[in-house]
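Record format v2
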Amino acid sequence: EPEVTQTPSHQVTQMGQEVILRCVPISNHLYFYWYRQILGQKVEFLVSFYNNEISEKSEIFDDQFSVERPDGSNFTLKIRSTKLEDSAMYFCASRPGLGLNEQFFGPGTRLTVL
Amino acid sequence: AQSVAQPEDQVNVAEGNPLTVKCTYSVSGNPYLFWYVQYPNRGLQFLLKYITGDNLVKGSYGFEAEFNKSQTSFHLKKPSALVSDSALYFCAVRDNTNAGKSTFGDGTTLTVKP
């Protein structure tokens, strides 16, 4: 069964450093998402991406964040200058085209900012 | 703005007993509702969804959920709980735009004791 994959599973970085979290969505999906989950808290929406552009973003997704689909398979989240409060689990999700279908989530990347 | 409430942080049941995990929602327009389960150090797994049609929705692993429009609820149920059902459960509502971001509840930890 196809699934969303994410790398790395755990990323440790120093405050102020740039990180790139990588996701490979399911191959025929058209909508892509990033969510984050701070330890012990709810899952929060960051950004949605469709047709090579951001379709919606939350107030969390400030100028420090960017997303890209550099080729036909990868979907990346970049944090330019990490802060301690960026420490969280980051989930990528994708879903098929138009229609009221569910999102398929990856296993997540745990980001630890020291 | 859409929102989801899961009024119970924790639900404890004995193996073999029925379980209910509660969820209420607030949304303008038609609700598109989902349940996801998260096992420790894992991603979010889709359980079931309500889009339209029958109010009783059946999903994975023997779970079902009952949509109640008048009470704006979408409670997750299972007739006979298993120890392996112990996990964190999230209710989510999707907006009806093409971007289709999900808004999650705070989550409910289900513990099934042998």
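Chain A has a mean pLDDT of 92.
The radius of gyration of chain A is 13 Å.
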